[in-house]
Amino acid sequence: MSRPQQVARPIVRSLRQVTGSTTATCSARPIGSRQFSSTPSQKDETLTTSTTAEPSAEAQKLAADAALLGQKKASHLASMIKQGPEEQLSQFLSPQLGSRRRRAALATTGNVPFEQLPYQCFQEARKILAQDREDKVAKILAENEKIKRLEETDASTFRGGEEYKRKRLESMRAYVERLKILADINDPMVKRRFEDGQGDMNKPIYRYLAHRKWSSMEREIILQRIKQFHIVPDLLPKFEPTMDVKLTFRGYKVSPGAILNSRMTETAPTLRMQVFDKGERLFSIVVMDSDVPDPESDSFGKRLHFLATNVPWSPTKTSLPLTRLSSGSAEDGPELGALAVPWLPAFAQKGAPYHRLSVFVLQHNNNEPLDTAKLKELYDGAGRDGFSLKSFRDKFGLTPVGFNMFRTVWDENTADVMARHGIPGADTEFKRQRVVSLKPPRKARGWEAKRQKPKYRSLWKYTKRIKGLKY
């Protein structure tokens, strides 16, 4: 044993005796305790409690929570959860709750509320965040007073007139919205509710967090599919989505661009849509096939598979089942929107390449509803063929804001699906036409001309121009 260890051993023993005794007071605090905190630690609170005085209800609750926490930490289950594999941890808490560290913390803290977790550093940090939130709220109140005074001021007093006043008000209101986000961006309770899917999308902070999460990965995937499958410029000259749109067929979540079985796409999907700005708005939903073969012109055309309009939407809504619109139910129509063109199953003839079926969400300008009867007259029936999304956008003054897509090919269920819905063309098979060269036949020369005799029969397999042989 080294000399420093021999000197330090008696000191460590005395410190352990002091901290382990139950009759110690605050004057016998160990040397290693933190002195910078304004609130005592939980161990100090239990040591300074008098044994003769009757403890208060809050003290009894804290003591019970501390005892429960100690039992949890000392139990074999807690150590097994922290050190066990993922399969063992998933037996106690669902993986949907987050990371392994968070699930282990939830399993070891028992029924203690999240905002009352007995961690001193956590509580000190919450005090700092609460003070910062109070400062942000004070700035919001002051800015609202400025906005109110500016609204009451006559626009003629400004050099820029009404235009300057309008731009100034927009800038100040945008600053207030930013302050609302900054006031709650670091609140652990806000982050927990958002991760658990319990956030109120009417509040700016939850819309901001949802938009940040969508922009981190899902938006990049959609932009990649738009470029990869040439949606731009085949369908639109320019387009970037600003809202989240997901597809679900019969409960199956579809990744953008996936090839689906014809039987799965026989019924209309359910759209999971999320907007990130406040207010009500009207949408039109378009589903179209951009790869319809045209043998006469040796090219590809477009076909409309579904059209719904006047769909009311807000940040609090998330699901739009197109099957309820396709059924034509009168009681569901006004709530979900108006059906203009019913759902047509996705199909592709045998031998044709894959078909790109695009789902577009278009926002109405100034929330003006469209005439459903006029849309039916234009696009239902024979109007499905040759549908142009660009023409539809320009004619009715719409703005594309959301996008998703899937693909379809000929499979073992396509013929049955086409027969059930009366779609012709199931017996059609496309084949590539052989292109015959226009160059005249060339006489054998060189190596081939010298070896036309049967003597070189073993070498004929290396050429196709042997006289008297047909290939």
UniProtKB/TrEMBL annotation:
InterPro entries noted in UniProt: PEBP, PEBP-like_sf, PEBP_euk
Cell compartment(s), UniProt: Mitochondrion
Location, primary (coarse class): mitochondrion
Compositionally biased tracts (Low complexity): 47-57
Source organism superkingdom: Eukaryota
Region (Disordered) residue spans: 1-57
Signal peptide bounds: none
Pfam families: PBP
Family recorded in the similarity comment: Belongs to the phosphatidylethanolamine-binding protein family. Mitochondrion-specific ribosomal protein mL38 subfamily.
Protein name: Large ribosomal subunit protein mL38
